[in-house]
UniProtKB/TrEMBL annotation:
<feature type="binding site" description="axial binding residue">
    <location>
        <position position="468"/>
    </location>
    <ligand>
        <name>heme</name>
    </ligand>
</feature>
<dbReference type="GO" id="GO:0005506">
    <property type="term" value="F:iron ion binding"/>
</dbReference>
<dbReference type="InterPro" id="IPR002401">
    <property type="entry name" value="Cyt_P450_E_grp-I"/>
</dbReference>
<comment type="similarity">
    <text>Belongs to the cytochrome P450 family.</text>
</comment>
<dbReference type="InterPro" id="IPR001128">
    <property type="entry name" value="Cyt_P450"/>
</dbReference>
<dbReference type="InterPro" id="IPR050121">
    <property type="entry name" value="Cytochrome_P450_monoxygenase"/>
</dbReference>
<protein>
    <recommendedName>
        <fullName>Cytochrome P450 monooxygenase</fullName>
    </recommendedName>
</protein>
<dbReference type="GO" id="GO:0004497">
    <property type="term" value="F:monooxygenase activity"/>
</dbReference>
<dbReference type="Pfam" id="PF00067">
    <property type="entry name" value="p450"/>
</dbReference>
<dbReference type="InterPro" id="IPR036396">
    <property type="entry name" value="Cyt_P450_sf"/>
</dbReference>
<keyword id="KW-0560">Oxidoreductase</keyword>
<keyword id="KW-0503">Monooxygenase</keyword>
<keyword id="KW-0349">Heme</keyword>
<dbReference type="GO" id="GO:0016705">
    <property type="term" value="F:oxidoreductase activity, acting on paired donors, with incorporation or reduction of molecular oxygen"/>
</dbReference>
<keyword id="KW-0479">Metal-binding</keyword>
<keyword id="KW-0408">Iron</keyword>
<dbReference type="InterPro" id="IPR017972">
    <property type="entry name" value="Cyt_P450_CS"/>
</dbReference>
């Protein structure tokens, strides 16, 4: 009897009940954990859909800069999410032993093979597992290993210079430079990982759609990562994963396919490393990451599995290609847009070539050691990182259950906190009042104390235990390619007055960066 009455009432009043539950849910969000005292976009306090749509709009880095300029150092981006703009927050949020963990934003970026997630160094949330993993592979990324990688970068650079001449400078064809640099960066990582280019530069095409696949994957991860449960309804829904496990749905990421093929090709060589732990230095070819990861398997047999070697290799492509291409585009674009800076840099390079600080090599290649001795080049690269860091969202961390003090505020356990490099890099008290201007000289004029602060605020590689492990490798690529390319070609914008467009798909990719190249005659050494 009572049940019949309740059902009858429900039939009449369900819209009202639904509206009331929604209202309660939204109010609970707004007053969640006392975070309602922090300002932000009005909708952000009520629902994560606000930050989902903001990320989907592909300009989230702009929103974050504007919100912080309007509201100050702490801004609420979601019912449970705070963004911090003061660089003093970096040490607390990303510092060692603070108990912070990566948020659910990261597992959205896990690759899948045969229906199983491949937790990578980048995407794992388990800090203990991460620390062990990182100890196993750290050596592969140390400064001392770079010498072994330089021949691999050189080999892709040779192909890149040759192809640029053949396809563009000799024909006068317009180049979609950001895409061309993507091809370079993806091929270098292929060369570094497997001693084999994936073939983008040689074929001037997106081989197997890998570049598009990675771009789409990241563009998916950006917004979906704001509401990670959506991933379980979409790419990683349990039904699709189960079908993959049973072999009914045979979707394999194209990068994983390439990685599996390389591992199969070199199985005998890797078995030897796994057994003996030693690597033959292959005459002039350097040592690649697959060999280093396999050596880690020999050194840490209880931890490193075949699966982890595979996942480490594929995650190099995901973490190291777009990011490097974006950073390279930033350097070349800002040079082309600032002829004064471009001219000054060329004067430094020509002078170094003439006085013998840069040696003579085919394709005017500049070595890593030589590139590090060019102060204006360094200033240009730092400034390009500053004005256009690759990651365009906050690097999310979860506050441990006991809570933590950040910038003098007690932040409750479970809150997602983070900093966005785009915001940190525009702090006028650190970088000067002209933060929106590209001006490399700021790196040369700064007094030692200020320079130290500027360097400590730079966040393009993240910070702390989860800082970019590939930083040295990417610097090797950038510090070599920029001077080498500029010594070979004059770079001009196809339309000097046009601005490029950007697309924040978690990494802030550049579009409409079209250039023409003219072969440059290199001044001879004195
Ligand atoms: C200019 C180029 C690069 C930029 C701007 C960049 C940026 C970043 C950032 C910001 C993080 C930290 C992410 C976070 O805390 O959420 C990161 C982590 C990582 N990066 Fe890079 N990266 C670059 C190049 C590379 C390269 C070339 C590789 C590989 C060869 C690489 C591999 C990784 C890995 C494996 C992680 C995860 C590290 C960990 O959690 O221990 N990155 N990168």
């Amino acid at each position: 009897m009572l049940l019949t009455e309740v059902l009858a009432a429900l039939r009449i009043y369900w819209p009202l009940l639904l509206a009331a539950s929604l209202l309660v849910h939204l109010l609970r969000n707004k007053y969640n954990n006392g975070l309602n005292k922090y300002p932000g976009h009005p909708a952000a306090a009520y629902t994560n859909w606000w930050r989902f749509f903001d990320a989907l709009n592909r300009k989230a880095e702009r929103t974050h800069i504007e919100l912080h300029r309007k509201h100050g150092d702490i801004v609420r981006l979601g019912p449970n999410v705070l963004s911090f703009a003061d660089p003093r927050a970096i040490k607390t949020i990303y510092g060692l032993n603070k108990g912070m963990t990566k948020s659910d934003f990261y597992p959205v970026q896990q690759a899948v093979a045969k229906g199983q997630r491949l937790p990578s160094l980048f995407s794992t949330k388990d800090e203990e597992y991460h620390a062990k993993y990182r100890r196993c592979v750290n050596n592969a990324f140390a400064m001392s290993s770079l010498v072994g990688y330089e021949p691999l970068v050189d080999s892709t650079m040779d192909a890149f210079i040759q192809q640029t001449e053949q396809k563009y400078s000799s024909t006068g064809r317009t180049c979609n430079f950001s895409r061309w640099l993507q091809f370079f960066a993806f091929d270098v990582i292929g060369d570094l990982t497997w001693s084999k280019r994936l073939g983008f530069v040689d074929r001037d095409e997106d081989v197997d759609g890998i570049v598009k696949f990675v771009g789409d994957f990241l563009s998916y991860a950006g917004p979906i990562g704001q509401m990670p449960f959506l991933d379980l309804l979409m790419q990683k829904n349990p039904i699709s994963l189960q079908l993959q496990k049973w072999g009914i749905n045979k979707t394999v990421f194209p990068v994983t396919k390439f990685a599996l093929a390389q591992s199969a090709d070199r199985a005998a060589e890797m078995e030897k490393i796994k057994q003996n732990g030693s690597m033959d230095e292959r005459a002039g070819r350097g040592v690649d990451l697959l060999m280093k990861f396999t050596q880690a398997q020999h050194d840490h047999p209880d931890f490193m599995t075949d699966r982890q070697v595979l996942s480490s290799c594929t995650s190099m492509i995901f973490a190291g290609s777009e990011t490097t291409a974006i950073s390279l585009s930033s350097v070349f674009y800002h040079l082309a847009k600032h002829p004064r800076v471009y001219k000054k840099l060329m004067a430094e390079l020509d002078e170094a070539a003439q006085n013998g600080s840069i040696g003579e090599r085919d394709h005017e290649k500049v070595s890593w050691t030589e590139a590090q001795k060019l102060p204006y080049l360094d200033a240009v690269i730092q400034e390009s990182f500053r004005v256009h860091p690759a990651a365009g969202l906050i690097l999310e961390r979860v506050v441990p259950p006991q809570g933590i003090d950040i910038l003098g505020e007690r932040i409750p356990g479970g809150t997602i906190v983070g900093c966005n490099a785009w915001v940190l890099h525009r702090r006028p008290e650190i970088f000067g009042s002209d933060v929106d201007t590209f001006r490399p000289e700021r790196w040369l004029e700064a007094k030692p104390d200020q320079l130290r602060e500027m360097k400590a605020t730079m966040f393009q590689f993240g910070a702390g235990a989860r800082t970019c492990i590939g930083k040295n490798i990417s610097l090797l690529e950038i510090y070599k390619l920029v001077p080498t390319f500029l010594r070979n070609f004059e770079v001009q914008l196809e339309k000097p007055d046009a601005e490029w467009k950007t697309h924040n798909g978690w990494f802030v990719r550049q579009l409409d960066f079209n250039t023409v190249f003219k072969k440059r005659s290199v001044p001879l050494a004195a």
